[in-house]
Amino acid sequence: MTAAVCGPGSPGQAHRPNEFIELDQVDACVAFLGRLADWAEQG
User: Fold this and answer.
1) What are the phi and psi torsion angles at 38 (to 5°)?
2) CA 13, CA 29: separation in Å to the nearest integer?
3) Of 3, 16, 29, 43, which has the highest C-beta tally within 10 A?
4) How many angstroms separate the CA atoms of 11 and 38, rounded?
C-alpha cells in the first residue's frame, strides 16, 4: 500500500528536545487537510 506522511513542522525538528511547530505551519496544515477532505468528498 502506498502511503504519505504529512503534517505541520519540519522532520528535522520532530521528536527532539525542544520540539516546536510555528503557527503558520499549523495554519498551512489545516488548509491542506481541508482541501484534501474536499477532494476526497468529490470522489
Assistant:
1) -60, -45
2) 16
3) 29
4) 26
The CA angle 34-7-21, to the nearest 5 degrees, is 115
Quick one: cell of 10? 519540519
Q: Which three cell numbers stand for residue 15?
A: 521528536
Q: What is the dihedral sign for C-alpha 23, 24, 28, 30?
A: positive
pLDDT-derived band at 30 (thresholds 50, 70, 90) equals very high
Q: Where are the alpha helices (DSSP H) in 1-43?
A: 23-41
Q: Above 80 in pLDDT, residue 43?
A: no
